Amino acid sequence: MGLLDKLKNRTQRAKGRAKEEMGRESRDPDLEAEGRKDRMAGGTKQVGEKAKDAAREVRRSGP
């Protein structure tokens, strides 16, 4: 579950970057904002996955 989620998050971030760049080039502020939103959402989810991984490591290395 973790690896697949991480790949989805990276894909979402990449799509967001692409939308953001296309919005800048076409001078479409709505598309640029949508891309920024997608990129930030993917990044936020990625942070959550890293936190889950850290929690698992703590449990594994417990007493």
From TrEMBL:
<feature type="region of interest" description="Disordered">
    <location>
        <begin position="1"/>
        <end position="63"/>
    </location>
</feature>
<dbReference type="InterPro" id="IPR036629">
    <property type="entry name" value="YjbJ_sf"/>
</dbReference>
<feature type="compositionally biased region" description="Basic and acidic residues">
    <location>
        <begin position="17"/>
        <end position="40"/>
    </location>
</feature>
<feature type="compositionally biased region" description="Basic and acidic residues">
    <location>
        <begin position="47"/>
        <end position="63"/>
    </location>
</feature>
<protein>
    <recommendedName>
        <fullName>CsbD-like protein</fullName>
    </recommendedName>
</protein>
